[in-house]
Amino acid sequence: MKIKAFFIIQFCVFNIQLWAQNQWYRVDEPGSKICFFVDTSASVCKIGTHLKTIITYSFTENLICINFKKDYDLTDKWGCLNDNGDTIINGKYLEPFSFYNGIAKVSVEEIIDNKSGELTGYYCKYIDKKGNEICDKKFESEFSYDMLGDWAVCKSGNFWYILSKRGKLKELSVDYEFVSPFSDGLACCKRINQYTAYIDTTTFSVFETSNQNFIGNFTNGFAQYSSIDGKFGFINKKGKPVTQCIFQKTKSFSQNFAAVKLYDKWGFIDNTGKIIIKPVFDDVHSYSEELAGVKINDKWGYTDKSGKIVIQNKFSEIKDFYSNIAAAKDTNDRWGYINKNGEWLIKPQFVDADNFDANGFAIVLYTDRNSFKKGILKQEQKALISKNGKIVWYSGEKPVLK
Prior knowledge:
Blueprint: H1 2-21, E1 25-27, E2 34-38, E3 50-51, E4 64-67, E5 78-81, E6 87-93, E7 99-100, E8 103-112, E9 119-128, E10 139-140, E11 151-156, E12 159-164, E13 169-171, E14 176-179, E15 187-191, E16 195-199, E17 205-210, E18 214-215, E19 222-228, E20 231-236, E21 249-250, E22 257-262, E23 265-270, E24 275-281, E25 283-284, E26 292-296, E27 299-303, E28 309-315, E29 317-318, E30 326-329, E31 335-338, E32 344-353, E33 361-367, E34 380-386, E35 391-394
Antiparallel strand pairs: 1-2, 2-3, 4-5, 5-6, 7-8, 8-9, 9-10, 11-12, 12-13, 14-15, 15-16, 16-17, 18-19, 19-20, 21-22, 22-23, 23-24, 25-26, 26-27, 27-28, 29-30, 30-31, 31-32, 32-33, 33-34, 34-35
């Protein structure tokens, strides 16, 4: 009996894992007004086919947003379906929405200008995945943000708040004129007195700086800042500069390195501000999986963290590595996929190509040579492929992966 129970539990866990890992891909034939979704085995999602204009592009947290509006309705009515086609949240919201950390910001009421009578925005609330409001208060949607972490910044009237996933509301200082969403645990608050405070989720100020100094969003512990017009450096989360403002441009830190532009060339610094790779490149990507794309004389390749070119500059365009594979375009303007040795895993043959996702699948555009025979003037077709060379779904003539 115990053995039987064990296998029943294992079977249930396995199926729960399969359900949790299911990934739906939005597919359609070019020129078609409708779309549907397939999974990695080409099974069609039970939500059916819908006009592209009334359904969002992808599922978020196993729900997809759809407009239930009828011809006689005066306003849009957005709600949510699950992948069985069941209505989980009734269509009553004025704009499409997505879930983040189990919470969605939804538009509930129009804001009409008293003088002109024109629509100027929406009031919003926050709901959980069952459609329950987590807080009674209405906020101004333009100045209220998604629940990207454990807290969301929101505004009601002249007051700013942070709202937790459980509906706990904290009022912020009354002298904040504007508050940005949280980024890397800090929110930027513009004070009336010409100073900017950076607060954490306790609402206490971590550091302050003059409004004359520009500071961007924090990413991986650092933010771009400028105290000299047209020159940039980096500041840490304690408000301490880690570099002087000497760079023409910068990119966010990734894998402890940041790209910087100096004397019209790009190089890289580490998180102490030290230049590790001298500025010698025409353009660069940020580091991903220990490699960064670099451009020399209109050709792209990849460098490691020592500055050594490990994949030669021979591509006209590239994307970052993900799961040891990157999309790259050859000199004939065709996309394919390469490994970290620069070898073609799937030879260049596509008009366009996304990087493979975490499940190992990508959407590509390809040329369908039989399109004209079928009366289709547009030659570009879509396909969903795996990094193992499997064609899961295609809209035109079946491509042959090389």
